[in-house]
Design a protein that fits this description.
By secondary structure, this protein is an alpha/beta fold. It is 51% helix and 16% strand. The protein has two domains: 198 residues, 2-enoyl-CoA Hydratase, Chain A, domain 1 (Alpha-Beta Complex); 47 residues. The strands form two sheets. Strands 1-2-3-4-6-9 form a six-stranded mixed sheet, sandwiched between helices. Helix 1 runs parallel beside helix 3, helix 3 runs parallel beside helix 4 and helix 4 runs parallel beside helix 5.
Amino acid sequence: MAGAIHRERDDRGVETLWIDNQAHRNTLNNVLIDALAAAIRDAGADRGCRAIVIRGKGGIFCAGRELRDLAALLDADIGTIADTYHKLRLLNEALHLCPVPTIAMIQRYAFGAGATLASWCDIAVAETTALMAYPEVRHGIVPSPIVMALMRGVPRKSALELILTGRRIDGAEAAHLNIITRAVPPDALEASVEATVADILKGSADAIRRTKEFIVHAEDASIRAAMISAVDSISIGLTAPETRKRITAFLAGERPA
């Protein structure tokens, strides 16, 4: 299959994962889905990684699922179909459980699996003119993977309209509906993502990892259980040497190193 996932790590610990399938507008196929999930898990497990930025080569984020994958399922049995979508589940799970912040940098298109990818990222920044859509129902496909992501952050009626109609929206509307974090003019996208990364790097790496771990736990727990476990989470965090160093510096009116 075509395409590759390229990894770049800068000296700050920021990992950029590039989707490179430019002949097909960076659509995802089974190989790319496996590779992207593995790269996210690998980077997240590395204590030297501070953030993950996902973007597409050639100025396009991801135009969905590669049609050859879907065509191959037309005559497949239910087991083969389930195995194929299990790959996508593992990708969504890798993003949701990733212990470092994940940022989608959306240019031009984010359709179907591409829009789902962006929706599962912690932060998504798009061009105001970028187009997003969840067109699965137009192809007779139940868009189950996106329902969970959208229903956690988007008003129910807005989510249902997008899922049930498959209509395209631009980055500005996506930001208004809370599908993405914000939309900026195309020529400001690089700077906006870099500003977000810079702000993340000001924080304690250990505290950010612990915070993400607790957020996942809180989402899956009852309110009362989350409140109780919050005590343990913050208490254990305050024993970390880096945390104590930062608090001491703050109380002394100094900037943490």
